[in-house]
Write a structure and sequence with these properties.
Layout: E1 6-7, E2 12-14, E3 17-19, E4 24-25, E5 29-30, E6 35-37, E7 40-43, E8 47-50, H1 58-69, E9 76-78, H2 84-87, H3 90-96, E10 101-104, H4 106-116, E11 124-126, E12 132-134, E13 139-144, E14 154-158, E15 163-165, H5 187-190, H6 192-202, H7 207-218, E16 224-226, H8 237-248, E17 254-261, H9 267-281, E18 287-291, H10 297-306, E19 307-317, E20 320-321, H11 323-334, E21 338-348, H12 354-363, E22 366-378, H13 383-398
Parallel strand pairs: 8-9, 9-10, 10-11, 15-16, 17-18, 17-19, 19-21, 21-22
Antiparallel strand pairs: 1-2, 2-7, 3-6, 4-5, 7-8, 12-13, 13-14, 14-15, 19-20
Bound molecules: flavin mononucleotide and fe (ii) ion (FE2) (2 copies).
One fe (ii) ion binds at residues 83, 85-86, 168, 228-229.
Length: 401
């Protein structure tokens, strides 16, 4: 990526931008490797620009676009998603090219009007499910993908080159590699972790809607997927589709146990480490241990979905659950954590009650089986607690999904 302008096919260009200085994406997600706001241009008899960019980068995005356009002008701006990380440049582009039409669905234009104070009614092309738009050789079909992850989201399939412009779907945290933006030598290490963290935290709640979109996609012959964040996908498409199928159906990716804990003075931490050791000794396929206060909670949430079982360990705090654990449980519920087996470790010096309280939170979720035996620690772990841990692990071994 010597310049930010990149060619994807003979007639399709990348006009997107990297953002490597943003502190938190969507106001809460750590992105140590940055993020890209992707935008594409299809050059044909008619020219279509696919989405814009975040306001932090609209100047750079416009420069890329102008370089691609040369002396031509865009005929259409396709607005697949009105979230501001992709739509900040809508008014800017509309002002620069008064002859350009804006393409979206009815909901898109309601939102355009909310964000920009006009719905561009004189140049709005309102499309519905399955509708087509010809650019010449390229023919775009629009498919509605409500709640993946806003209500107005639609994806665009270009049938001549067999490309799916998938909106936020199949996106990933992390800026694009300047030298080799599309290369994914090993999807499992280079794509999965940050795509998982992105998907489960940002879209995770809407599994049913993603399943519906995957069914529509299954009816299309797709050679490339062009998402709004991260690399375009053009090899091993089956791998990415399988991941999306697992995540959106809330199925674990592999057998294993996440041990997520919080600790004030270190005693619950010791118990969590004991849990992890006993799990390994029992031959558990994969054991991940995380201190909730010191980890990226979005990453821990991703691990909870990746694995089929979980152990939660936390002290009692002001008669309640230690705050960072309560927060974790809130995130799990909001992302529809389900179909898992969970064991609990509680701690308290005068009235331990996190076990009961964590169980109540888990019971609000769908299809969560909670181990009857709670490891109840009074300040520091005892030999009896170690035996209780052993019983929980036996139970976890019997509850492999
Ligand atoms: C602000 C604060 C509030 C606490 N509230 C309770 C409580 O309501 N009930 C209880 O049994 N222990 C309470 N504790 C004590 C801890 O839960 C207890 O010491 C526990 O063993 C700490 O585990 P740790 O060593 O993993 O930090 C509280 C501690 C602090 C600092
Ligand atoms: Fe979005
Ligand atoms: Fe986005």
């Amino acid at each position: 990526m010597q310049t930010n302008k990149m060619q994807i096919t003979e007639t399709i260009y990348y006009a997107g931008v990297n953002d490597t200085t943003i502190d938190l994406f969507e106001g809460q997600y750590r992105v140590p490797a940055g993020i890209s706001y992707n935008s594409y241009v299809i050059m044909d008899e008619k020219i279509a620009v696919m989405d814009t960019a975040d306001q932090r980068k609209t100047t750079e995005w416009m420069e890329n676009l102008n370089e691609i356009l040369g002396d031509r002008t865009p005929d259409y701006l396709i607005v697949s998603h009105m979230e501001p990380d992709h739509s900040a440049g809508v008014a800017l582009l509309a002002a620069a090219y008064p002859g350009m039409k804006l393409v979206g669905n009815a909901k898109t234009f309601q939102m355009i009007s909310q964000f920009f104070g006009t719905d561009y009614s004189d140049r709005a092309v309102i499309v519905a499910e399955g509708e087509k738009l010809s650019l010449g050789k390229h023919i775009l079909s629009f498919y509605m993908a409500p709640m993946v992850h806003w209500p107005e989201v639609m994806v665009t399939y270009e049938e001549t080159e067999k490309i799916l412009f998938s909106a936020d779907g199949f996106g990933k945290f992390g800026a694009l590699d300047e030298e080799d933006p599309w290369s994914i030598a090993n999807p499992e290490t280079e794509w999965d972790p940050e795509a998982r963290r992105y998907y489960l935290n940002i879209v995770g709640k809407y599994g049913m809607q993603v399943q519906a979109l995957l069914k529509k996609a299954a009816g299309l012959e797709i050679i490339k997927i062009c998402p709004l964040h991260g690399p375009i996908l053009q090899e091993n498409l089956q791998h990415y589709l399988e991941k999306y199928n697992a995540w959106s159906s809330y199925e674990p990716e592999q057998k294993g146990v996440l041990v997520a804990y919080a600790s004030i003075y270190g005693n619950t931490k010791k118990a969590a480490e004991e849990v992890a050791e006993q799990l390994k000794a029992a031959g558990t396929e994969c054991v991940e241990i995380r201190d909730l206060a010191r980890s990226d909670m979005a990453e821990v949430l991703g691990q909870a979905f990746r694995l089929d079982r979980m152990v939660l360990a936390a002290p009692t705090y002001d008669g309640g659950i230690y705050p960072v654990m309560e927060e974790f449980l809130t995130h799990l519920k909001s992302k529809s954590y389900q179909k898992r087996a969970v064991a609990l470790v509680e701690n308290g010096t005068w009235a331990p009650m996190t076990g009961r309280l964590m169980r109540a939170k888990l019971e609000e979720m769908k299809n969560i089986t909670v181990c009857e035996q709670v490891v109840s620690i009074r300040s520091a772990m005892t030999a009896t607690n170690k035996q209780e841990i052993g019983k929980c692990i036996e139970w976890l071994q019997q509850n492999i999904l």
